[in-house]
Amino acid sequence: MDTYLAQLPIAPPDASAAARARDRWNSIAKPVGSLGALEDAIVQVAALTGNDSPDLSKRCVVVLCADNGVTQQNVSQSGADVTRLIAANAVRGISSINKMCEPVGIDCVPVDMGMFEPLHMDGMRDLRVAAGTADISRGAAMTREQALQAIRTGVDLVGELASQGYSLVATGEMGIGNTTTSTAMTCAFTDKDPLELTGPGAGLPKAGVRHKAEVVRQALDANRPDPHDPLDVLAKLGGFDIAAMCGVFLGGAVHRVPVIIDGFISVVAAYCAWQLRPECKGAMLASHLSAEPGAAVLLDRMGFSAIIHANMRLGEGTGAVCLVPLLDMALNLYVTGPTFADCGITSYKVDHKVGDQ
């Protein structure tokens, strides 16, 4: 493993804070463990942060924008120019992600990691690695050094956000062709056939899905990625959005900030981060189960169960932000809910099998 990745300072979870958080949940006047995964999420945040009274009130979604050379192979209904158009809408505050963030007070942070053409607008962070990746069906998407640069950028970005007081980060992306890159990476990691894992992305018809699967197969044949070397898989088959998002998940673990996994592209980035440094899993919160077939495969391998099952596949971070109001409601009960003692009710017996992580 590269020295930078091996030396990232990731602290183990705080078992004492986790135990105090679990005890707090068990003291609230309700059936023990009855909020299921929402209780587990608050306990996980306590363990990550070392604080059994976590504050998630300042939160953002990082939308990592990048273009993919594989769009030359007609793997999407949209052209590569749409990446830049949607990114501009995110900066203006009118994209799908902005509208879903507004009701729950989530800031949107658009970042250019490598669109074909830069977007010169106030509000767009320019952290570009290069002007898009190469066509993976013909060779490597990027160099190993570029993959590392994008990962470091993601780690540093979380550090910057943490210094600004953000205590919760959701992941999002914008990049036409990135379900193709994500599918190729998933096939490389799992050795599954492209026809089994290729989905419609933004809405391809059946013939388009078959063509997309063939392009994924060509990418695997052209690059021969090493499944035991996550950085090799990422550099050969991924995108600058996925690489930077991988860094965001690692950065969450380094800076002790919980990071919400979004849909398929985000799941692939989380899986890559987990393969590089398994300890970073403690910083990840799974939000929803994407309709893309590869998402369930990788979530299962990581041992995650998505909380939201809504057949979503929009991207931009829209699924991740849907988890935030659920966390808000759970945290409000956790902090302000009456205890058994407050209500004069005999405490329920705690079966340690209930709610154990």
Chart the SSEs and their pairings.
Layout: H1 3-6, H2 15-27, H3 37-49, E1 59-66, H4 81-92, H5 96-101, E2 106-114, E3 125-126, H6 144-163, E4 168-174, H7 178-190, H8 194-197, H9 206-223, H10 230-237, H11 240-255, E5 259-261, H12 264-276, E6 284-286, H13 293-302, H14 318-336, H15 340-343
Parallel strand pairs: 1-2, 1-4, 2-3, 4-5, 5-6
Offer a few descriptive terms.
6 strands, globular, alpha/beta, 15 helices, about 350 residues
Within the largest sheet, what's the order of strands? 3-2-1-4-5-6
Helix-strand pattern, N to C? HHHEHHEEHEHHHHHEHEHHH
Helical residues, percent: 40-55%
Radius of gyration (Å): 20 Å
Brief characterization of the structure:
By secondary structure, this protein is an alpha/beta fold. It has helices at 3-6, 15-27, 37-49, 81-92, 96-101, 144-163, 178-190, 194-197, 206-223, 230-237, 240-255, 264-276, 293-302, 318-336, 340-343; strands at residues 59-66, 106-114, 125-126, 168-174, 259-261, 284-286.
Q: Would you mind describing this structure in some detail?
A:
By secondary structure, this protein is of the alpha/beta class. It is 48% helix and 9% strand. It has 15 helices and 6 strands. It has helices spanning 3-6, 15-27, 37-49, 81-92, 96-101, 144-163, 178-190, 194-197, 206-223, 230-237, 240-255, 264-276, 293-302, 318-336, 340-343; strands spanning 59-66, 106-114, 125-126, 168-174, 259-261, 284-286. It has a 6-stranded parallel β-sheet, with helices on both faces. Strand 5, helix 12 and strand 6 (284-286) form a beta-alpha-beta unit. The relative contact order is 0.18. The model has no long low-confidence stretch (mean pLDDT 96).
